Amino acid sequence: MATVYNLARHDRNGEFMNPSLQSLLQAVDADKARLDTARPLPLHTLEALREQLTLEWTYHSNALEGNTLTLSETKDALDAAAVAGEPSRQRFDAVNHRDAILYVEDIVAGDETLSMQHIQQIHRVLLKGIDETQAGRYREQNVPGGGTCPAPIDFSQVPAQVAALIDWRAHAEKMHPLARAAELHTRFVKIHPFMGANRTIGRLLSNVDVMKAGYPPAIILSEDRATYDYALEGACVTGDVSALTLLIAEATQRTLTTYLGRLGSSD
Q1: Are 195 and 92 within 8 A, CB to CB?
Q2: What's the pTM value of the predicted model, to 2 decimals?
């Protein structure tokens, strides 16, 4: 039986949820229920979907952070296509993000409880071949305010705050998974545990929650960068994650549509 989540109120602070968000979450859950009835999908269909979504997820996530590789160039990087000269930083970003997705998939497949070790390993994977001296290490200095989430905490508080984040996640099972994903993403970025890649890790962590709940990954599009920046900043500053939840729900629904579109051709 499908899990029924209480959408009557905002999952975090008890305020009434935006009716449009509530309706969207109900529509996403209805699409997920349709997909659930068709599972398990044929292996060849799953492999084709996985390849397509890994490419799109990598391209859009890196583009959100300023990577200028096109979708075609990202595919070439992931396919190890011959390119003259040494691999560029942007090609490393593509391959490393693909490998981080594989690691996230392992966490989901093993139904592993999110841990500090998982978070540090994702950072190591993302920085492989780029800055391995900092890979997996929490920042050891303060960073200036500004950016998406202003005024990150003092660096000395990072380990304790990451531990508190893990504890919060362990006790947030009653939240709708997509709202919880938005909350997890926001809390992580506010901590700003590493000197770089925090937003990328935040999106990967949010998809651990999305995928563990049986949804396909939420892929936020590069063309939605301004909307994403605004939603994440608002969540960090005010604590209201509804706009970010809406964006994640739209992204999840888009991926569900891709899955459902394959059902007729999966015979």
Answers
A1: no
A2: 0.91
